[in-house]
Structure prediction request, 265 residues.
Amino acid sequence: MKLYSWNVNGIRAVIKKEALQPFIGEHQPDILCLQETKANKEQVEVDLLDYEEYWCSAEKKGYSGTAIFSKPTPLNVTNGLPEDIVKKYHLGEDDYGNPATEGRVVAAEYKNFYIVTVYTPNSKGDLSRLKLRDKHWDPAFLEYITRLNVDKAVIFCGDLNVAHTEDDLARPKDNVGKHGFTDEERAGFQKFIDAGFVDTFRIFTEGNGHYSWWTHWANARARNVGWRIDYILVSEKLANKVRSADIHPEITGSDHCPVSIEIDI
Prediction:
């Protein structure tokens, strides 16, 4: 099975750039997970006959949003975090909105596994959403995937808005303590690892220079001054079934590029 994940930074923009369908045609993912779709399904015309579409759009128009395009038909699809987890971790309104209604999570259940795609809230340049990340969102999402993992193996992917280690961004010393590379965010990611989930890219590739997001400033993408903030993680029991894990910087159309795995499942 080929699984791809891509923060498209506006699916209508990627379609207008004629980037989405050629990418799908060339790579033929069995399951494609998208983040930051910034649209409702009825606003988008995507001619993908081989795929079933499952959308989770934000209540706020043109903002956030996730989707799963799947060739195999899932047994069940769930949007958002469960209400009991939302209440337990006090996920509610802040100065930016309500992360529980921003279309940030879709989970698709298949016979032997779940696939969850997530668009993690950005902690913001002034760190005004760091408390949300550290105390509310990250532990809520961890509990959710851990709960699913009791039932079936889990593959979760998406824009997690954090560089886990110094190898995951081009200029770590310049960014210590800044959004996406705070101690709190990095510790939140480490808790996924400690809970038994495996960063698939690191099964195969060590070191730096491998990034999935670049700022638009200063020709950063051409110079590969980027961050690896898009991930695919799997339950530990699936790690030996992952055959490859890749980042695709040659795919343009967004400030992020797709990431992928091939897995025997």
Observations:
- The mean pLDDT is 97.
- The chain has one domain: 2-263.
